[in-house]
Design a protein that fits this description.
The chain is an alpha+beta fold and 663 residues long. It has 3 domains: 11-28 and 97-299, Orthogonal Bundle (Hypothetical protein af1432), CATH 1.10.3210.10; 350-492, 2-Layer Sandwich (Beta-Lactamase); 494-662, Alpha-Beta Plaits, CATH 3.30.70.270. The protein contains 27 helices and 11 strands. The protein has helices at residues 11-17, 30-40, 46-55, 57-67, 81-88, 90-107, 117-138, 143-152, 156-163, 168-175, 182-190, 194-204, 209-217, 229-247, 264-268, 276-294, 301-324, 328-338, 350-365, 410-417, 428-437, 473-492, 511-526, 542-549, 551-567, 592-612, 638-654; strands at residues 369-376, 381-389, 401-403, 421-423, 442-449, 452-460, 532-539, 574-579, 582-588, 624-630, 660-662. The radius of gyration is 29 Å and the shape is flat. It starts with 10 loop residues before the first helix and ends with a strand.
Length: 663
């Protein structure tokens, strides 16, 4: 019976991503199906398990090999499977049998390139072991079920590797360019995530309902579903185990990439009650023993440390690029990474953006109070405009103003240096301010818009009295910078708030919003406040995609193009769909030479995607052409600027397509 919470892909969706037809169901080994049934059945007997193991020579051989190994230290050699089962124990035999069966029957054969099956299997075992350990730590009633769910959570990737229209090796090579969630890149490039694909086939194979749900939602939000406590907890356990596995250098592919933890995990699991040292140590022990039987290399402690160091270096490099580099692609990569650090700001309401940020900091950093202070230029002061008070004190902070004079000390330094500052009463002005807040110390962090400081985030521990340590400064600074950018975007969109801003298919700005924003950018360019360029982009031979593969394929192409444009554009650029298969990008603070570089980067990126997708859309190459124009004194109005870019685009089409031409 289909679970009401399972929304599975359609047959037509499967045909779009696999060369294997939706109805061509691969055979599923009966022994694995029976083992899954036994693992999920609390009333299953030792005799039933022994009989199953005895009927499969491969599993029998492994069981005897394991029980006779040095780690068990038995004085005599065990020859009978039934006796091996007694020595190993019911739960251990269930776990080992399932592992051997799945490995031998499903995972062992296949390619050994970028998607290395042994590497992948090591990840599956690791997640299985961690899932079982976490389940036991938190008192989940079926730790064996947690093991099997962790073991099989990623098996949709096997279908991509064997039958994907897009070569999975090529996908993995391509995905290393973007440090965002790997599952998101799968959905864009492969046409579907491995979670949905795995759920589709596990449902056809009549996997236990709880296992299908876990495969489906181990990367997706699930708080909105009508799940029972046990189902939600199982998904949370496996998702957390998957995350921990990646942090330990045991991902499914050989790259540094952490998945995003769903907010539901902290709601379902009290992380403070888990002994993570104990959990990781158990993983170490079991994986070292298991590696002997699967002939794979287990990372040493020094390799673990190197993996984690590389992860930190990569994140540090990305954060550094956020502050210092002018490279557009890296800036967008930072935005994708930051989605896992703080709540994304999707609202255009400035007050909602501010309150959302305060709530996120309050939740993540546990300060007693948080407040936003805005710069009041006319009074040369800071004024408290928003407060989140988690205490019982409930002081009215909004009347407080902080003069920005010579004695203001750290407040002036914060604004001038654009850096976090600890206010500890070093000057008379600091002492007066701390007295108003009834504090001994406070942390202040600036946030900026259009390259200028517009306010300060303040926070304290008036209730707990806990000291504020410097190691939180950089994390808060990232959140504050996100706040400034969100407020900047909200201000840019203010003129277009009365209309719908987004294109329904691609999520980009629509034509009305683009026209409004271009008018504003054009006025700044006329006033000499802004270099301005425009890029018009058109999908080559788009009609052929629709004619040959249907409108759904055309929609997928438009989504892929829009995703690429968003990745390679800066926060202060405006990207929109201008009609049909035509896109437009407003490049602020950009002259013609830089705009041509940007357009060429887009063209090459799409050309590379076309090569990657050649089997998904056989017979057609995905490419784009682009026309670029720049504001000059001779350009009388925005329509003139658009016409120049459009004319250049037309010339690119005339001269063979897949080109960039300036107007």
């Amino acid at each position: 019976m289909m679970n009401d919470n399972l929304i599975l892909p359609l047959e037509s969706d499967i045909k779009q991503v696999l060369t294997l037809g939706a109805k061509e169901i691969p055979s599923f080994p009966p022994v694995v199906a029976k083992l899954l049934e036994i693992c999920s059945d609390e009333d299953a007997s030792m005799e039933e398990l022994s009989k199953l193991v005895e009927t499969d020579p491969g599993i029998s051989a492994k069981m005897l090999s394991i029980v006779n190994s040095a780690s068990y230290g038995l004085r005599r050699k065990i020859m009978a499977v039934s006796e091996a089962v007694i020595h190993l124990g019911f739960d251990e035999v269930k776990k080992l049998s399932l592992g051997v069966a799945v490995f031998e029957k499903i995972f062992k054969s296949g390619k050994q390139k970028q998607f290395n099956r042994i590497f992948f299997w090591r990840h599956c075992l690791c997640v299985g072991i961690l899932s079982m350990a976490i389940a036991e730590e938190i008192g989940y009633p079926k730790p064996g079920e947690a093991y099997s769910s962790g073991l099989l959570h990623d098996f949709g990737k096997i279908f991509f590797d064997l039958h994907g229209r897009v070569n999975y090796d090529d996908f993995i090579t391509n995905v290393t360019k973007y440090p965002g969630p790997m599952i998101m890149e799968e959905r864009e490039l492969m046409g579907m995530g491995h979670d949905d694909l795995g759920a589709y086939y596990s449902s056809l194979w009549n996997f236990p309902a709880s296992l299908v749900l876990t495969i489906k939602y181990h990367h997706q939000r699930y708080g909105h579903l009508d799940l029972c406590r046990e189902e939600a907890l199982l998904i949370s356990v496996v998702s957390l185990a998957n995350y921990l596995s990646w942090t330990q250098g045991m991902g499914s592919v050989d790259m540094i990439r952490l998945p995003i933890l769903q907010p539901e995990i902290e709601k379902n699991i009290d992380l403070s009650k888990i002994d993570f040292i104990k959990v990781i140590s158990r993983m170490d022990r079991e994986m070292e023993n298991t590696s002997k039987f699967y002939n794979f290399i287990f990372p040493s402690p020094s390799q673990f440390r190197e993996n984690m160091l590389r992860a930190n270096l990569e994140l540090g490099s990305i954060n550094t690029s956020y502050y210092y580099t002018e490279d557009q692609a890296k800036i967008v990569d930072v935005l994708k990474i930051k989605e896992s650090i703080t709540t994304p700001h999707r609202s255009l309401d400035p007050r909602l953006i501010i309150t959302t940020t305060l709530k996120a900091i309050y939740k993540d950093f546990k300060f007693s109070r948080l407040y936003v202070m805005k710069v009041v230029k006319s009074l040369r002061s800071l004024k408290v405009v928003e407060v989140l008070d988690g205490t019982d004190i409930k002081m009215d902070l909004k009347p407080i103003e902080i003069p920005l004079n010579k004695m203001a000390g750290g407040f002036v330094n914060c604004l001038r240096d654009r850096a976090p500052v600890m206010i500890a009463g070093k000057t008379s002005g600091e002492k007066e301010t701390l007295a108003k807040f009834k504090l001994k110390e406070m942390l202040i962090v600036p946030f900026c818009s259009q390259n200028r400081v517009i306010g300060i985030l303040g926070m304290d521990n008036i209730s707990s009295g806990n000291p504020i340590y410097p190691d939180v400064f950089s994390s808060i600074a990232i959140v504050a910078n996100e706040l400034g950018m969100a407020l900047e975007n909200a201000g840019a969109y203010e003129e277009a708030k009365a209309v719908s801003l987004k294109d329904g298919l691609t999520g980009l700005l629509n034509r009305v919003a683009i026209d409004e924003l271009l008018a504003k950018s054009f006025r700044k360019a006329v006033d000499g406040k802004n270099d301005l360029s425009l890029v018009m982009i058109d999908v080559d031979y788009f009609k052929k995609f629709n004619d040959k593969f249907g409108h759904q394929a055309g929609d997928n192409i438009l989504k892929l193009i829009s995703g690429t444009l968003k990745k390679l554009s800066r926060p202060f650029d405006h990207v929109g769909r201008y009609g049909g298969e035509e896109f437009i990008v407003i490049l602020n603070e950009t002259d013609l030479s830089k705009a041509l570089v940007y357009a060429e980067r887009i063209r090459k990126e799409i050309e590379g995607l076309g090569r990657l997708l050649v089997n998904r859309f056989p017979g057609l190459s995905l490419t784009v052409s682009a026309g670029v124009s720049e504001y000059q004194a001779s350009v009388k109005n925005r329509d003139n600027l658009i016409a120049k870019a459009d004319k250049a685009l037309y010339r690119a089409k005339e001269t063979g397509r897949n080109k960039v031409v300036s107007g």
